[in-house]
Amino acid sequence: MMPDWVFDDADRAFMAGALAEARKAGERGEVPVGALLVSGGRIVARAGNRRRAEHDPAGHAEIRVLGEAGRALGDWRLEGCTLYVTLEPCPMCTAACRQARLDLVIWGTPDPVMGACGTVVDLAEDPRLGPPLAARGGLMAGEAATLLTAFFRQRRQRG
Q: Fewest CB within a 10 Å sphere: which of 19, 20, 60, 93?
């Protein structure tokens, strides 16, 4: 994870937007993960998890936002774009980000189970997979972790 000074006010504003998407996902009963895709300082797409609602194992916020951005920009290549996501991407999402040719992924809280940008494995930097994916973690990690912790606490209480 990176120290807070690495991030600027624009990064914080975009991550706040991703956190808003995460809150919406949580309100729908989804794991509260949200994502924004930004190009040239403007939001191109936003999404939250929808695995349960769409019965889609690939319904992660990152996958959904990449698809929406590709349609909005008219290309699957998302060069020049930055992804803001509240939870460190899993292997599936990290691979999709590499395939999309993103410039940068900025994530919130680490994922100690599936984190693929350095916490469990580092698929973002693995040279066997082609050019590396730049990734920075730790932006507003506390807020993102609080959303996830509260969600899973409530789920356990409901049994």
A: 20
